[in-house]
Automatic annotation (TrEMBL):
Pfam families per record: Amidase_2 (PF01510)
Highest taxon in the source lineage: Bacteria
Limits of the N-acetylmuramoyl-L-alanine amidase domain: 72-201
Catalytic activity field: Hydrolyzes the link between N-acetylmuramoyl residues and L-amino acid residues in certain cell-wall glycopeptides
Keywords associated with the record: Cell wall biogenesis/degradation, Hydrolase
Protein name listed in UniProt: N-acetylmuramoyl-L-alanine amidase
UniProt keyword Amino-acid biosynthesis, yes or no: no
Organism: Streptomyces purpurascens
Length: 221
């Protein structure tokens, strides 16, 4: 979450986009392109929802606690928006306060995961959906957000258990979407263009974290 709440980014108006793409493709004789595009957008048709299992998680070590639907946008990633980034946050509060905030429809922000100081992982938004966590629409659509319990000015909050659990989580996300394990694709909230957040802060040990992610990435699943 960082120092301030991110604002809600509005949904795309896909009806006109789908029609334009379909029309252009038909005019050009490339009906395959139109069918492919519409296949990715079918779930946005009124009255149609992509099948989902209640309480299902994307990371086997996580516990599911649902965020408010006001704090994320239904999607079909990576089919409609490719995922090529993990964004690291620090909650600026306790684990419980972060969960409460993400369940509050008035908060207008939430991340996919929260990692507690003892290494426990909670998932609050499915990875296929767009979480409002980065304060930048493009970055929201292409990333998975991971919050970490603590404060940016308290290095003691960044525990060994937290680093290790978060690194394993990030490694699995990178493996799932073929994301390179480097600092261009694993970034802090402070590095998102247009943001005024400072997390994960000066005490976040990037060298240590990236080393742990690389180790977890090459370890047996």
């Amino acid at each position: 979450m960082g120092q301030r709440k991110a604002s809600k980014d509005g949904d795309r108006k896909v009806g006109r986009r789908a029609l334009l793409i379909g029309g252009a493709a038909a005019a050009a004789g490339t009906a395959v392109l139109a069918r492919d595009e519409l296949a990715r957008l079918w779930w946005r048709t009124p009255g149609v929802e992509k099948p989902r299992k209640a309480g299902e998680v994307d990371y086997a070590g996580a516990r599911w606690v649902a965020a408010s639907e006001a704090n994320w946008r239904r999607a079909d990633r990576p089919d409609d928006f490719g995922i090529d980034m993990v964004i690291v946050h620090v909650t600026q509060g306790s684990f419980d306060s972060a969960v409460k905030a993400f369940q509050d429809p008035g908060h207008k922000a939430a991340a996919h995961y929260i990692v507690r100081q003892d290494g426990h992982v909670t998932q609050m938004i499915r990875e296929l959906d767009v979480a409002y966590h980065a304060g930048n629409r493009d970055y929201n659509e292409r990333s998975v957000g991971i919050e970490h319990e603590g404060f940016v000015d308290r290095p003691q909050d960044l525990t060994d258990e937290m680093y290790e659990a978060s690194a394993r989580l990030t490694a699995r996300i990178c493996a799932r979407y073929d994301i390179p394990v480097d600092r261009e694709h694993i970034i802090g909230h402070v590095e998102v263009p247009g943001t005024d957040h400072t997390d994960p802060g000066p005490h976040w040990d990037w060298d240590r974290y990236m080393r742990l992610v690389k180790q977890a990435r090459t370890a047996p699943a």
